[in-house]
Amino acid sequence: MSERRIVDIKVLWTNLYRSVRTFLLTFVKPIESSISYRMVESFIRRRDLVDEIDDDKYHLLLKVNLRNGTLNPNELSYSLIPLTLTYISKVVSKNSEYILGTFLFEGFTKPKLIASAITINKDKKSRNEERYLRPILISLAPDVPDSAIKKHSFKVSKSVYDEVLNYFSTYAPKYFDILNSSELMKPLVVMTIRSGFETLDEIKAVVSDGNEFREIRIPIKSPSWSFNDLPLKLVEDIRTIIVNPSMRDLNFAPKGAFITGPPGVGKSVMAESLASSLGLKIIELRPSLYRSMWYGATEKMLNAIFHQIIKKKSDIALVIDDAEFVSSRKYTTHEAHVSEISTMLYHLQRPDRPFTILTANNPDLIDPALLRPGRIDVSIVLGYPDRVMRRKIIERNISKYNIVVEDSLIDNLVTLSKWFSAAEVDAFIRLAASRGEGKARYEDVEWARKKITVNYSERKSMQEYLKWWSSKTQGIVITYIPNENEIE
Predict the structure, then answer these.
(1) Which of 139, 407, 425, 463 has the smallest count of CB within 10 Å of its CB?
(2) Domains of the chain by range and CATH?
(3) Strand 131-140 and strand 189-195: pairing?
């Protein structure tokens, strides 16, 4: 056997299991990632079989398929550290006559060792009593079908165990006698890891916090809106400023957009339409997904999420809806929130981030460090829809809900819905159709209008505020703020 270069030999232990030691040998540098913890999670899900450590049987072929299509030995080798320090240490602490040897290798019939972790209870009562080593085999891209795994497993166990003993006798002889004083048994678990095809249905982030593993899954969805659902006054500017440079992959193309306006005017519709025009799917990030009550855990999960998001940056647009929580740090007093905002800003300012879309009702709350060229390049300001846009919304919803409406009544609907938001126009149509049992007659429309309260003066003030904010904000600004005569 030719000698290979060892990256590290070390002893690991935890205060939770003071008598247990793990002897780690690696030929690659372990790198922490979500894949590391996916490995641990896959193993622990079947911990009931590992608990039967004294049952000399071939227990399990655990198959793991990595959807991202990459099998990184560095990331997979790291999984041996949390696995041995938590679950395997716990098992060995209760079964002192057994040693658990976890072996990660490439191939199968001719295994190429990547890393090993041999876990032993050093406080065994009778040192003259023989120990039994139960192998846990983790095969990366095995070269045999699953049906042949059992046939070769004991021979493979002996091969990798002998290789580990050889390196310990040469490079760490003080541990050799401990590891060599055991009888090799049949494998306790055989895990095979193969690459699969990438799918864009979700991202998954996993973090470790002591003995706890936290996992979140964020769905990736296709946009359901397009430029056909936007005011025509906006579409041309957005195509020129954002879409055309991005689709041509020009270096100066904007990396993000901020969409602001009152509730219900169509900010989320605008976000999905923009992503659709760029040929991207959407992932939505909300604080409820990653926030934790434990100190530092929020930032750790946020970092893990962005690590996965950036891997898919060419396929997705990151949407942060109601982004007021990324507020200016001058308004924030709680230390944990300041730390969360700083972490968020760090990732949103990275040059390798995906196209990012933020929406907010109150633009003054957003940290100004974010809204400048080079970060979130373009601000899109949406006001209340004008008569032309309201007619478009009404006609679209009549078709969408299969509502029977006389053509002569549509003008009346447009007039009665002045100063409505897009969401309120939608509710107005549905309310009238509900009373008319699928039809919207004149009396149904009049009845529905009385059920919706709109403060015209308040909305006029909001429209003026948006004009003022647009005039003072830095960077590129695209506005859709109709004048009063266009709305009424």
Answers:
(1) 407
(2) 8-195 (no CATH), 202-382+465-487 (3.40.50.300), 387-454 (1.10.8.60)
(3) parallel
